[in-house]
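Sharing a chain and its predicted structure for anyone who wants a worked example. Both blocks are below, sequence first, tokens second.
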Amino acid sequence: VQLQASGGGLVQAGGSLRLSCAASGRVSEINNMAWYREAPGKQRELVARISSSDSADYADSVKGRFTISRDSAENTVSLQMNSLQPGDTAVYYCYVSGRASWFSYWGQGTLVTVSS
């Protein structure tokens, strides 16, 4: 599976960005799709994930501000980020997994910078 992420950039605090990630290859085996982020000096953390049945869950820090969605027909997963804060500054990675434990793939990452 290849994952191509896009949509990162520089935004002022309070602004919005939308990240998108397109999957190609063995997409029929994808089950869950997710976004992670890695801030400087911090460990990579789960931001949001969505199952094949469109059940979503979020990190507490982004609940009410971020929305994850997927388009199974287009094999894409998106992350709408509103009310961005400087603490959201990080490289954001899309991630997919399947039923088999070995089936997991990372995208290349896209940088989101939120200025105060």
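Comments welcome. The two ends are 37 Å apart (CA to CA).
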